[in-house]
What does this fold into?
Amino acid sequence: MLTTLREVLTQARTGRYAVPAFDCMEDVMVRAILETAQSRRSPVVMMVLAPDLEGNGMAYVPGLVRAVAGQHTVPVVLHLDHADNLDLVRAALDRGFTSVMIDGSALEFAENVRLTRAAVELAAPQGVSVEAELGHVGGADLECTVRRESVLTEPDEVARFVQETGVDALAVSIGTAHGVYRSLPNLNIERLRELDAASPVPLVLHGGSGTPDDQIRNAVRHGVSKLNIYADLRIAMGKGLKAAAGALRRCDPLPQEVFGPIKQEIMTVVHQKIDLLGSAGRA
It folds into this structure.
């Protein structure tokens, strides 16, 4: 069933668990994630990135999630991930997204507030949740052509930012990075404690793929209510593809032969993340 980020994260913050959030595209990923979440009775956030919405993507991907969410009894959030402009937010609202993330984290504080507040003014009248980012989670872009350094979130800016923008959730920077790590991160849990104490809204951690499990568990214990995951799914897809390639019928492979191993590897990762975040049975 479709719901908002506000609803699932409010419950997660109270229960001190985190909701897994997966960037996805195409039906194999959507089906693998939703069927696993349903089997584990876990709420889930289905995220879509701007590059996957180009062309007909704005019709296909959210249309698929909306069409199948009602077949599941667990809470499903349809979330626009890392929008950096209001036109994309407007398009997502028109397509029925229940949550949007506006990313002004590379901007100065005042400009981030201005952009975020404008997104909230668009989304709130439609009952759509808004996530923003304060501080900056760096790392590599999807093409691995650009790397940016992370900037830790300042606790004394959090309450002011939330008050001036009206956001429902706040992504913070405590040492993670997007993409595949060059070296293992060391999360600043003491900083997270300060951020959690200062924040009126649930906190989100981006760059969840590849972060050691013990650090993720510690982050959830100390305030993280949503974890973003993408690189681990891409790695799983690659592993499944290699397995499929070695087992195909020579002339006319069946769809299950091609997509089955990919789906299974994705489901394995989703199971692991649900266990890691403590979201099983929370639906």
